[in-house]
Amino acid sequence: MEEKVRLQKAIAASGVCSRRKAETLIVEGKVKVNGVICNKLGTLVSPLDHIEVIGENLKEEEKVTFLFHKPLGVLSTVKDDRGRKTVIDFFKDENYRLFPVGRLDFNTTGALLITNDGELANLITHPSSHLEKTYIAIVEGRFTPEAALKMEKGLFLDDGMTAPCKVKILFSNFESKVAITIHEGRNRQVRRMCEHLGFKVKSLMRTSIGFIDLGTLKRGKYRKLTDIEIATLKRLCINNKEKNIIPDYKKKIS
Ligand code: URA
């Protein structure tokens, strides 16, 4: 979700004036949020809100999106009350109001998009975008083709049926390595799918988001997505939404 900040901070961050001056302008009724005058100090705004200082349009922060390789033991949030490390701590050199697009569990590693682009984040995280994400799970025990088939067809978890997905067994012995591609974004979904079939997950790594692949990006490192990658990602989400892809399992019910 987009990180909200106080209105005076957002104005100051845009470079229009100092935070003190922004507070004065707000109290004087000279600031509009989404077309409506807002004279309340401390109003929370997100990058999606349109802020205007009367007579002067706020400079929009340049939109940037990074592909980050999230390490183990890092929170997918902007800040943490308990002082634990968050993904945004890795972006101290970047002067943008960044937030993660969706989440990876504390103990999941891999591809995570970090952005200040609210529109992109909304498109990607909206269920109708059906953006595929691939995970590599190392599980205890022999992962059989039967288990893979069950997972592919959909499993009945405590929050309902999972959509059909793709499963590829890469290695299977006393422990197994499985590539799982899903297009939903439910909480701890891949872990719960594995556990449902009796497989304890030893490690989980997301290797791609749509066509954006982690490649050789090292843990804790990031790279900026190109304009073409961003435009293609947006187009992919919009196309899926427009096509109104209804997963097969839902078609059967209705
Ligand atoms: N599924 C999970 O179980 N964990 C994640 O972090 C992402 C998907």
Structure description:
The chain has 254 residues and is of the alpha+beta class. It has 2 domains: 5-57, RNA-binding S4 domain (Structural Genomics Hypothetical 15.5 Kd Protein In mrcA-pckA Intergenic Region, Chain A, Roll), CATH 3.10.290.10; 62-254, Pseudouridine synthase, CATH 3.30.2350.10. Helix content is 25%, strand content 28%. It has 7 helices and 17 strands. The chain has helices spanning 7-13, 19-27, 118-125, 145-153, 189-196, 227-243, 248-253; strands spanning 5-6, 31-33, 36-37, 44-45, 51-53, 56-57, 65-70, 99-100, 108-115, 133-140, 156-157, 160-161, 166-172, 175-182, 201-209, 212-213, 222-224. Strands 7, 8, 9, 10, 13, 14, 15, 16 and 17 form a 9-stranded mixed sheet that branches. A 4-stranded antiparallel sheet has the order 3-2-5-6. A two-stranded antiparallel sheet has the order 1-4. Helix 1 (7-13) crosses helix 2 (19-27). The longest helix is centred in the C-terminal third of the chain and has 17 residues, at 227-243. Uracil binds next to helix 5.
